[in-house]
């Protein structure tokens, strides 16, 4: 340990800090996790992933959303589901998540300390507790896993009640009758569509003409149609000129001279790296315009090699899922333990209503890169499971290389998208081709059958290379749908 207090000190107990700490504990190294919040878990557990997904599940259950095409919306929506109804389940889930985390840390001998950490030298930090005490600690290696804070520009009159940011939103005392959301990024879209499912009048405001640009445009068209049908008033190309806190409501003036009035405003236009308290000057580290830290994306080392950074503080893709993965890889590298390299394709899940999930490239990206491709599409209503579930919408789009027949991207919108995408992820990372979907039997009836339908859709239009024809003849059986 070279005389240091710890082998690894981790600042932040969110997903990346948590994964790194448990990995270090498993390697029997001395590891400490510091968090300024008295409850472990980070943004993910307390204001981000877990609360928003618990809220979504609660809303869909209480409103009877999934069965609406058979029975209409549940009477509870009309009678108004209360904020208390939503919070009851939220607190149960969060308490459970924190318990599990504390138990994991105990089992793996991970030390924890509550306080605000700042560097005072290359191998030394100072931790200030809320009681005003300070402690100095040293380590061979550090991991910055401090995540992000909400972006709160001066022109937004935040009051924690009718004008709130993403972290304050879940503290609402009552469900508003109308909600304006500024920012059609992942968080804005998720909350806007969830509340619309509860019959709240939602206006989603985005200054740019497009939104969620990393997703295939055909999927976004389908999604836009669905959310508008569900009642979301989507205002694209609508820069905000002025926001006025009018006591019991909010008045929003848009640059295009339109006007929005709502009982509550959620400002969800971006987050900033939580680095300002770290005193990075003491170790010679710089941040970008969003206070994020640059790293080597293979090892997660910063410009100072014994200091690592993972999770949202390093920027895209800013997901709990990728943060967990990064934390573990960084800990292995820092503690000089060999591990497997990360797979290139990871899924992106957007838990809007309807949900969306993607893995790999979009059609626009393939066109930009000049890659020849074929497309296979399946609608959920084409599957028997979709009929049984009463799904009127939902689609799966598969992009395939014309040269290698490999799957290059899959995009799904609709029920179960965030679960279904893992089939695509497995096939892609195992270098699978369209033939996988044609050759293999899928459970019936399932929504996963959409893969088979989309695969066949593309397969039937794809040219078959000569040498491949020989192989295909051998492989085809009488039951093959192509025979
Ligand atoms: C509303 C919302 C919904 C989301 N939904 C999803 C989703 O569905 N799926 C998904 O994969 N991701 C989702 N995310 C993203 C996910 O929450 C983040 O990617 C993840 O939390 C980032 O983890 P992290 O390890 O960077 O740390 P974070 O979870 O950001 O935690 C950082 C911790 O560091 C602490 N800290 C900061 N500075 C200091 C300091 N100087 N000293 C001590 N402690 C400090 C903070 O108190 C905090 O506890 C969502 C985010 C939000 C906001």
From TrEMBL:
Keyword Oxidoreductase attached: yes
Q: Which residues form the FAD/NAD(P)-binding domain?
A: 6-327
Q: How is the cofactor bound?
A: Binds 1 FAD per subunit.
Per the entry, which co-factors are needed? FAD
Q: What are the GO cellular component annotations?
A: cytosol
Q: Where, in this chain's numbering, is FAD bound?
A: 53, 312
Query: Where found, per UniProt?
Result: Cytoplasm
- Spell out the SUPFAM superfamilies in the cross-references: FAD/NAD(P)-binding domain, FAD/NAD-linked reductases, dimerisation (C-terminal) domain
Identify the keywords attached in UniProt to this record, alphabetized. Answer: Cytoplasm, FAD, Flavoprotein, NAD, NADP, Nucleotide-binding, Oxidoreductase
Q: Which GO terms describe its biological process?
A: 2-oxoglutarate metabolic process
Q: Which residues bind NAD(+)?
A: 183-190, 206, 270
Mainly localized where?
A: cytoplasm
The free-text function statement in the UniProt record for this protein reads: Conversion of NADPH, generated by peripheral catabolic pathways, to NADH, which can enter the respiratory chain for energy generation.
Q: Which family does the similarity line name?
A: Belongs to the class-I pyridine nucleotide-disulfide oxidoreductase family.
Name of the protein in question? Soluble pyridine nucleotide transhydrogenase
Q: Which organism is it from?
A: Ruegeria marina
